[in-house]
Amino acid sequence: FLSALLFFAGAGFVIDNLWGSRKYLHLSEGLEIVGIVAVFVISGQLLFAVLAGFLLSGIAFIAKYARVPAIAGHPLRGNEVITRERPVGEVAHQSLMHIAAAWMLILRLKGYVFFSSSQAILQCIEGHFRDEDRN
């Protein structure tokens, strides 16, 4: 009896707060909460509702940050980057710049690499090399 009473009191609290926060939550966030409550109502187990919450929030996190591009700007070749010249000699400097232009590809990243961001980085690099091979 006590568990049923606590469930109905808690369910009313959750629904009241969900209705009150509808102005501040996105539709997907509201659906996450409704899904968690539905799992709890159907299963009657708090553990299943917590696991469903972890799963839904993990999926939402991945979906949100997978859309954020990790690459800032376009790729630069080694000779397009401004470096400080060191007094090593003109021939050594030209040789170093030739190697840098041929072998180096520099990507500016936004400070993080996430799951699908790494795939986008690899696709950018592969596309850049394919374009070079065509030219």
Can you walk through the features of this model?
There is one protein chain. With 135 residues, the chain is mostly helical. It contains five helices and two strands; from the N terminus they run αααβαβα. The chain has a two-stranded antiparallel ribbon. It is rod-shaped, with a radius of gyration of 27 Å.
Number of strands: 2
Shape: rod-shaped
> Which regions contain 5 or more consecutive residues with pLDDT less than 50?
none
Report the radius of gyration as a whole number of Å.
Answer: 27 Å
Number of helices: 5
Helix share, percent: 55-70%
Spatial strand arrangement across the major sheet: 1-2
What does the largest sheet look like? 2 strands, antiparallel
Instruction: Give the N-to-C terminal Cα separation.
Output: 77 Å
Please tell me the overall pLDDT.
Answer: 78
> Strand-and-helix sequence, N→C?
HHHEHEH
Could you outline the blueprint of secondary structure elements for this entry?
Layout: H1 2-20, H2 27-43, H3 46-66, E1 76-77, H4 90-103, E2 105-106, H5 115-134
Antiparallel strand pairs: 1-2
Helix pairs in contact: 2-3
Quick structural summary:
By secondary structure, the chain is mainly α.
Any key phrases for this structure?
single chain, 135 residues, mainly alpha, two-stranded antiparallel ribbon, 5 helices, 2 strands
